[in-house]
Amino acid sequence: MRADRLLLRGRSLRPLPLLGATVRVRRRVGSFIRTAARTVFRSFMLVLRWGFEKIQPVYETSMSLDDFLIVAMRAARQQHLSYLIRSFTEHRGHETFRLQDWPRTREMGFICGCSGMDHEWRVGITNIRDCLPEARATFMRMRKQALIPVQKKKAKAERKAKALLYQFLNRDQKRELHTRKFFTVLGADGRTYQVTWHNVNNVKLLVEGQPRFSLCLVPAKEVLPVADIMLAQKIWLEADPDTFLRTAHVQDLETKRIFPNGCFLAEGRDPPPLCDEVSDVPEPLDTEVLDSPREWLEAQLRNA
Question: Which of 71, 107, 133, 283 could form a disulfide with 122 if both were Cys (CB 3.0 to 4.6 A apart)?
Answer without folding.
Answer: 107
